[in-house]
From TrEMBL:
GO terms for biological process: RNA modification. PROSITE patterns: PPR. Keywords: Repeat. This is Chlororespiratory reduction 4. The keyword Transmembrane does not apply. It comes from Coptis chinensis. The keyword DNA-binding does not apply. Gene3D superfamilies: Tetratricopeptide repeat domain (1.25.40.10).
Length: 501
């Protein structure tokens, strides 16, 4: 129903004398909010002589749905002045307004009001209070509240686990998950998703298989998190198995998992399979287009990226900022300088603002084409502060193109951001060596010895016959490490023979 039809119904309500019905007014208010006419809903509310609890709650919910929490709390104050006490539904709505504000003081004040008023708090409201504290930045307050109440239903447990994951306290989340008496699909999804998001992809896949053994049926959210974990690990065999599981259990009937499948196959090195999935999508949306564009760009297929982007435009699908990251990345790898500049500037046509990722792609493109000064000027003109990744790309390019003067300037900028990063001095030292500036190189080497820096070792993973193997830099814990290093030495020898021929 559109706004005109709704107003016609509203007119009939008035005509037949039903405008004083609390229930009818609540429905009308909800309609106006759904049409993004909160002001019209508020006028309807203000016209009521003595609104009851249902209408007060509806008006507060309207402001919450419109993401106007302060106005919602303003209605709550007027409600209290009118002498009306909230029930559990109204309380949950009011607490949601506090959650949107994310203000810890307001959160504590609301909790204090509920406690002093002696209002019975059910599990629904209790979960809302946990979210309120967590989203207000205090996991400690949420934790204290959680342990105060017993017994707790599965919703309360899930809310607390979610808050631990959200605050990146994965250890506590795992302990709660292990000790909770009953788990539902949301419990499993929260933990699998948390593990996947925080880089523990192998553990996420293991937990998925454990979930399967419990008899709880996974849903689309489970599949999204598990596919993401496979993509991060490059676990093609496991990802293919999960794709088969999805098809067998008809979990992708609405095709909402297609973008994740395309992304998984692309990141696992099987771009042809990603294309196959893409070509079976009946109605390609921005997410599927973006997934295949980014996947093709990742595999260096610049021309195909441009072709797909043009088809996307012809289909009338508007790209988002992630789409442009893929397009610009493809231009960088293919050396398409003019096209890259054109696409970078065209983002404004779609009302998209340049983010640091887009600047990073353009700087990469300019550096690859040897336009180092132009890349430097672009960094200096960025509306946001450049990070070490952006500067690092330019410093690497300075070494390739032997631009000592610019490399010194870039290194200085990077050291202002992180003076303890040894890579900056190592890179600049190498540039000095290649330029026969021995004095500068020796000075930097001395500085390096004085810097005490514990770096997290790099980690790589590979899947063989369905098993994921992880390796740290210099790691010898793998049972076949001798054979692995032997093969690596042979590869390295062949590489040097090849470049010297």
């Amino acid at each position: 129903m559109n706004i005109i039809e709704g107003e016609e119904v509203h007119a009939h309500v008035v005509k037949f004398g039903n405008e004083c019905s609390q229930f009818v007014c609540s429905v009308l208010l909800g309609f106006y909010v759904g049409c993004r006419c909160v002001g019209r809903g508020r006028r309807l509310f203000d016209e009521m002589c003595e609104p009851g609890l249902i209408l007060w709650t509806s008006m507060i919910r309207a402001y919450v749905c419109a993401n106007c929490p302060r106005e919602g709390l303003g209605v709550f104050r007027k409600m209290r002045e009118a002498g009306i006490m909230p029930d559990s539904v109204a309380l949950a709505t009011i607490v949601s307004a506090c959650t949107q504000l994310g203000n810890l003081d307001i959160a504590k004040t609301m909790h204090g009001f509920i406690s002093k008023a002696g209002i019975r708090v059910d599990d629904f409201v209790f979960s809302a209070l946990l979210r309120m504290y967590g989203d207000s930045g205090s996991l400690d307050c949420a934790r204290r509240l959680f342990y105060e109440v017993s017994p707790k239903n599965v919703v309360v447990w899930n809310t607390m686990i979610h808050q631990c994951v959200k605050h990146e306290n994965l250890g506590e989340a795992q302990n709660l998950f292990k000790t909770m008496p009953d788990k539902d699909v949301v419990s499993w999804n929260t933990m699998i998703g948390g593990l996947s998001q925080m880089g523990q992809s192998k553990e996420a896949i293991v937990l998925f298989h454990e979930m399967e053994s419990t008899g709880i049926e996974p849903n689309k959210m489970t599949m999204l998190s598990t596919l993401s974990a496979c993509a991060s690990l490059g676990a093609l065999d496991t990802g293919t198995w999960i794709h088969g599981y999805i098809e067998k259990n008809r979990l992708n009937s609405d095709r909402s998992l297609d973008p994740s499948l395309i992304d998984m196959y692309s990141k696992c090195g099987s771009i042809n399979k990603a294309i196959q999935v893409f070509e079976t999508v009946p109605r390609v949306d921005v997410f599927s287009w973006t997934s295949i564009i980014c996947g093709l760009a990742m595999h260096g297929h610049g021309k195909q990226v441009i072709d797909q982007f043009m088809k996307m435009q012809e289909a009338g699908v508007q790209p988002d900022d992630v789409t442009f990251v893929g397009v610009l990345n493809a231009c960088a790898h293919a050396g398409l300088l003019d096209q890259g500049k054109m696409y970078f500037e065209s983002m404004g046509i779609y009302n998209l603002r340049h983010k640091i990722e887009h600047y990073g792609c353009m700087i990469d493109l300019l550096c690859r084409m040897g336009c180092l000064r132009e890349a430097y000027d672009l960094i200096m003109d960025m509306p946001m502060e450049p990070n070490v990744v952006v500067w690092g790309a330019l410093l690497s390019a300075c070494r390739v193109h032997r631009d000592v003067k610019l490399s010194e300037l870039v290194a200085e900028k990077m050291l202002e951001l992180d003076s303890s990063d040894p890579w900056i001095r190592v890179m600049l030292s190498n540039i000095y060596v290649e330029a026969s500036n021995w004095e500068g190189a020796v000075k930097l080497r001395k500085e390096l010895k004085e810097i005490v820096s514990e770096k997290v070792p790099g980690c790589s993973s590979i899947e063989v016959n369905g098993m994921v193997h992880e390796f740290l830099v210099g790691d010898k814990s793998h049972p076949q490490h001798k054979e692995i290093y032997s093969v690596l030495e042979k590869i390295q020898t062949q590489f040097y023979i090849g470049i010297n021929q």
